[in-house]
Specification:
With about 120 residues, the protein is of the alpha+beta class. It is built from three helices and four strands, in the order H-E-E-E-H-E-H. The longest helix is centred in the middle third of the chain and has 18 residues. InterPro entries: Ribosomal_L18, Ribosomal_uL18_bac-type, Ribosomal_uL18_bac/plant/anim.
């Protein structure tokens, strides 16, 4: 029997998380994408702490435009918060999603705003 969409994503996510982990110097940029919103957070896996977070539900992010444009705004916001916290290098965790569409626009705007990964 075939896997459901969520089971398939969970398998891919587990495979990614075996390799990608975050430290205090190089945190993990974790992405979660729902049908309506997109969330990003910087995680230090050693200490088990979220360093910074941004989402499309934040007040300072304009919810106007397409979903990809909103994701780009979230990427820019998380990059600004990371740079303010003194972090410029991260490891990217796409969370089992394809590097395409909203996930790609979030990553590219975070790179343009100054993050290195």
């Amino acid at each position: 029997m075939a896997l459901s969409k969520t089971e398939r994503r969970q398998r891919i996510r587990n495979r990614i998380r075996k390799v990608v982990s975050g430290t205090a110097q190089r945190p993990r940029l974790s992405v979660f994408r729902s049908n309506k919103e997109i969330y990003a957070q910087l995680v230090d896996d050693v200490a088990g702490v979220t360093i910074a977070a941004a989402s499309s539900r934040d007040k300072d992010i304009a919810a106007k435009g397409t979903k990809s444009e909103i994701a780009a705004a979230v990427g820019k916001a998380i990059a600004e918060k990371a740079l303010k916290a003194g972090i410029d290098t991260i490891s990217f965790d796409r969370g089992g999603y394809l590097y395409h569409g909203r996930v790609k626009s979030l990553a590219e705007s975070a790179r343009e705003a100054g993050l290195k990964f």
